[in-house]
Amino acid sequence: MVPSEDAAPTLDVDQILADPGVRIVVCCGAGGVGKTTTAAALALRAAERHGRRTVVLTIDPARRLAQSLGLTELDNTPRQVKGIDVEASGGELHAMMLDMKRTFDDVVLQHTDPAKAAEIFANPFYQAMSSTFAGTQEYMAMEKLGQLHARGEWDLIVVDTPPSRSALDFLDAPARLSRFLDGRMLRLLLAPARTGGRSMFSFVTAGFGMFSKVVQKVIGAQLLTDLSGFVAALDSMFGGFRQRAEQTYRILQARETAFLLVAAPEPDAVREAAYFAGRLREERMPLAGLVLNRVHRPAVPGLSGADSLAAAERLAQVGGHEGTVEVLRAHAALAQQAVREQGVAARFTEAFPTVPAVSVTAQPADVHDVDGLRTIGAAIGGR
């Protein structure tokens, strides 16, 4: 017997959105499960129904969030969403999309003098790292979240993360940064600058000289020079990077944060959700629940797929009931799909029986406007 999808405790999303003690909601999960739509729907519901001044931050570079909110574009600055129903509640909705290079530039400008900032911006290694370097996006997401939280302008921040493994990188950013800052190679690259050396090739010791020659052969002298200059220029900022990242990490562990896993009733998506739930448990981060999107439900739940298919076959043999036969066969296929989805969802609820869950019925079309987001928000909220 397949466990019911309602076996898990019911997730009360409205209680989370209305709670003034909850200031951050992080939506995470695999790609293609409706995570961005869910984040936008929750932010809209928080503003319209619960009167909260809300900002939704997407880290996914896709433009779906802007389109669904009726905006032509999103950038690194929160933009207020107009035309929503907040007259009675008094809430507000703002939206933004992370620009990792702009965020990195802003951090440099904030924590260095203009001359040093110009030196950093001109460095080829910085130009590459701030735009395309693996891990930069996730670390800058932490920076941006920390900035939004510190400003105190919003009652609620809703974060739409990249697909699950990248979202784990989002959690790992502080630890990766610390490992980088404490790494042996970084200390060697910083040695000339910290001891007053004239350049990367004014070696402090013979040992460092041998190290540099080896690295030059591997990555090239010019790249090594750019890297050394970049490291030396940012040396005074590294402690601040690490401190802010660790502070944001502590915020994510606090009671003011609620993580919502978003999945679809598909094996890969549920596996990713379970993997992430395990990580959150290990890191002692507050997992509020699971939103299971795109769930299929037959119109007549009491009629099983097998019975519906058998009835269709009997009518087909009699003849003259083509329309009814097609309806019964369609119902059979939908009922069988619903049973399969319940079995897939049960893999999560069996592994995490105490995690509340809510399921959202599959929509007939993609959500692309505010009305569609309201429909999704009402489905998640249960009304």
Would you kindly provide a written description of the structure presented here, covering whatever features stand out?
This protein has 383 residues and is of the alpha/beta class. It is built from 15 helices and eight strands. It has an eight-stranded mixed sheet with strand order 3-4-2-5-1-6-7-8, with helices on both faces. The protein starts with 12 loop residues before the first helix and ends with a helix.
Layout of helices and strands:
Blueprint: H1 13-18, E1 24-29, H2 35-48, E2 53-58, H3 64-68, E3 79-80, E4 92-97, H4 100-111, H5 114-122, H6 124-132, H7 136-151, E5 156-163, H8 164-181, H9 184-194, H10 206-219, H11 221-253, E6 257-263, H12 267-282, E7 287-295, H13 305-318, H14 322-351, E8 357-361, H15 370-381
Parallel strand pairs: 1-5, 1-6, 2-4, 2-5, 6-7, 7-8
Antiparallel strand pairs: 3-4
Helix pairs in contact: 2-15, 4-7, 7-8, 7-11, 8-11, 9-11, 10-11, 12-14, 13-14
- Order of strands, widest sheet: 3-4-2-5-1-6-7-8
Helix content: 55-70%
Calculate the mean pLDDT score and round it: 81
Q: What does the largest sheet look like?
A: 8 strands, mixed
Q: How many strands appear in the DSSP assignment?
A: 8
Helix-strand topology string: HEHEHEEHHHHEHHHHEHEHHEH
Please state the structural category: alpha/beta
Instruction: Identify the overall geometry.
Output: elongated
What's the multimeric state?
A: single chain
Low-confidence segments: 1-6, 193-220
Nearest-angstrom radius of gyration? 26 Å
How many DSSP H or I helices?
Answer: 15
The share of residues in extended strands comes to 5-15%
CA(first)-CA(last) distance: 30 Å
